[in-house]
Amino acid sequence: MLFRWRLGVWLLMILVSPRLLQSRPQERNGNFTPADDVELKTIEDRYDRGDSVVFSPDGRYFSVVTQQGLIEKNAPEDTIWIFDSEKVHALLSHTAQEPPAPLALVRMATDKDGPIIQHVRWLDDSSGVAFLALETTKNYRFHQLLVADIKTGAVKAITPDNQDIEDFDVRRGNYLYTVMAPEVVDHEVSDDSVSPLAISNLRDLFFPLSRRLKPFSDSGLWALINGVRFQVRDPMTHEAIQGSSSLSLSEDARSAVVILKAASVPDIWKLYKGPPGERISRLSPLAYHLIDLRSGSTSLLVDAPSGEAQHYANTLGHRSLARWSANGHAILLSNTFLPLEGTSGTERMLRESRPCTAVVHMPSREITCILPVKDGSESERYTISDLRFQDDSTVVIDFDRSYFMRDGPPSAIFRQNNISGSWNIVPNAQDQLLAERDFNIVVRQDLDHPPVVMVENKTTKANRVVWNPNPQLKNIDIGRTEVIHWKDRSGFEWEGGLVKPPDYVQGCSYPLVIQTHGFSSSRFLSNGPYSTAFAARSLAAVGIIVLQMPWNPTSLISPNEGPSQLLGFESAIEKLTAEGLVDGQKVGVIGFSRSVYHVLEAVTKAKHLFAAASLTDGITFSYVESVLLTGADGNAQYVSEEEQIYGSRPFTEVGLKDRILNSPGFNMYKVQTPLLLLQPGRTAVLLGWEPYAALRSLNKPVDLIMLPSGTHVMTNPQQRLASEIINVDWFRFWLKGEEDSNPAKAAQYRRWRELRDLQSLNDLRSAPNKDLESSRKNRGAEAPRD
Hints:
By secondary structure, the protein is an alpha+beta fold.
């Protein structure tokens, strides 16, 4: 019988009581709360990376997608909103006094986790939109391809309800899409019923992230052409590449471009290089292919791997896209290497070193590079959100404007030289689709103002608000944020956002919580860069200043990654303390995902820097994590990064000695900071177990709270609400000595008071001359409660 894992009370884990998750306190004080954050409507984008406003092909309409949490239903709700361009334009000419109400074409809350609606695309005739929707039945979760009609509001399913659609393309009523097996919802299996099974990964054995229905003969590539549905490639010949958006159907629906695994990897492909400094354990044979939908024949479109094959995707965010020209004479590709055959010298070196955005001319398949990919260490790096042909010799490229990228123009136009064949950017040129309109539709937001949709006159710059999706915040004081800059001892210059309490008083020193994992000065800062664990406005509302800061990109995936982040923490605290804004003895920090490792580095290398810390669902680079994440598949990306940070894996004598000296997991005895591990689900608990177990065995203050499992970036409303409430409680307790009077939290505060007493004793042991009462006072032991 296989080993059974049991969770007991000795683990000090709790499932959050529903009474902790009240959507609104009895009396509002006019300040921002975690519930306000969860219920906020955020404006999403087409591919989760690019533009949030999308015009129909005829320009008569534009669409916006929002997501918000429905606390009472415990589900995220996604909505597709449709706006009439002519009515919106009338606002500028004052022929309309009030903004036109948008049409909620599709509103869905079909699962406890999101996103629910993805990949919204206008149909060619502007009659409606096609999109993927997350659906849930008793036994399965899957994404279904749907089409919504603007005039009738009818929503029609294009694919069956037993297929999970990964990606799709639509042209003139014809569809191309990839099918995966649906995810099994109820996959609890008795150990007694398990057949002999080859095991390659402990995490997947005990805590599977998901299981899909097997066998599933419908997997593969499908098409719906002229009303006839057929399977283009079956499970034996096609493997869907998750996360790729490379599917492209030709205008005549006779051909398709898709990224597939090459039948074999030519030796010459081994010359292609990955991003600078990144070790590639093996080349993945992914490449762009051309499929004849009538015969089913498949051939390499480009005799070279895609950028994904050499890690120019996951680590840098570069997407692989394909777009046909209207007449089918050319195909536009992003993130592909160019063939090496017949090249030499500088040209050969350039082709080996990086992929690019390129044009393939048909039927000759002659390929030319438009724009090389920039790697993460280059200051002018970029990613592409979309691209298209304006004509056969003119290409429009839309750039991603996420907070990871520097500010820059939203798009650029490139034109091919008729003589040399090279592509050059056209200065001051504008996308023809935009040039035909005398107005712009923009989503306007800043650090202190949630996003609104605005219409702007291109010439006069006169503008009006078209739609405010969050009028409920009108009377809520959310505080103020300022952008600050500072330099650490290495000379690196940092930029962050400082969120001050609504009742901030100049000259007073406040507690500080540092939030990690990114900062954008152009986006509304409600919780943080992600909805997991961060609680910027909610913390500010209880009298705590919050610093939202990024990481140092020049040191990522290197031995200096952890130390450089520690320099950022130290220099920020020094600056804010010297300016009298914060009390340097009352500083907390929140780590999530990658920055969990950064926080663990800080609390083991700088013992007294933080008075409290909170970690959620992240990488630790610990010995136990290495064991769990090492299997037959090798987990190539994790192994590569681990080796680059520590020089080797921990399973050799040299590697283990180095890990004992340098990794946080083997240095937890140095920790003097009370630590909260706020983990969503059993998998996160397992992977974060080493720091918890170490601190417990060392009799140091640590608490582990398990939330219900969900998505890594939390979308479930009650899960999000719980993570914010608990983090606010944690930092109020340690930095201000305050407790919430809610009786449902009594057990929580009993545990934390015991941890505080333990911390006081540890403080005395480390500093024998320190008075016990002084220690208690510094930790807020006798402070008044609410």
